[in-house]
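Researcher: Excuse me, tokens okay?
***
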Amino acid sequence: MTKFLTGFIPLSIIAALVIFSSYTKQPQAKKEAATSETISESKPVISGSLPQVIKSVDLDKVYTFAGEAIPRDNFDAMERLDRELSVNSYWHSSTLLNIKNANRYFPVMERILAENGVPDDLKYLAVAESSLRNATSPSGAKGIWQFMKGTGIENGLEINSQVDERYHVEKATKAAAQYLKKFKERFGTWTLAAASYNMGASNTAKFLKSQKAKTYFDLNINQETSRYVFRIVAIKEILQRPEEFGFYLESSELYQPLNDYKIIEVNSSITSWAEFAVNNGTTYRMLKVYNPWLISNNLTNTSKKTYQIKIPI
């Protein structure tokens, strides 16, 4: 190329162009070198990175459930607790909603648990069971306390095609309190009572006997129940002091208790709950929000039982 051009352009001009080009590139090269040096001195930048602070939960304290301490001298128990504290601390959406829901349901639960003589900590069992929602499990357990149909009926809940009191927070809480008290009387500790709530009393008795174990922490059992009490303790710790775990909520962001209602007693059949709702100044949707245990569009009520229906005001 140079040889070809020399036939038309004087060599002096070509030399000048080459010198000018070399000179103009030097500042840019120096600038790039300086930038590269500055980056190398700072922390490396990784494409697609997610800056965040992840810390382990402090285990250097006494953790308890219903007044019963997690044995600190048992490394296996402490590691199982560490797992649940870590999982629930960084399971952000679920834990955030648990904090919001707790503001709505805990006042009701605390009163009923106290009336039935069971520790306040048992309210956290309901969080572990359902995240304080009227959920249905794959096995058919329903409601905030996740009762199976047979167990619910045995503990005084009405369950049929029109009424399902597993969804009645007050009645289900009372049933759960009585159920847990039976386990405590049988096995002697609240940790074993909670384990029995999860896997059944017959399994608890069988494993205690076959493994010659004395406490929940000594049992080698299915993974769900093995994690169960530790999960409850982790939930308790986070919900009691959420800001220490990085959850900051204003009081206005919490779900408010459903206290704004009046009671209408019904002791006859209702052909249409939608019509009943409109006639009482509310909507079908709000009637079901305040009374989720009414699972049908109507109520036959051949026994003339009296039901207390909440009507929002």
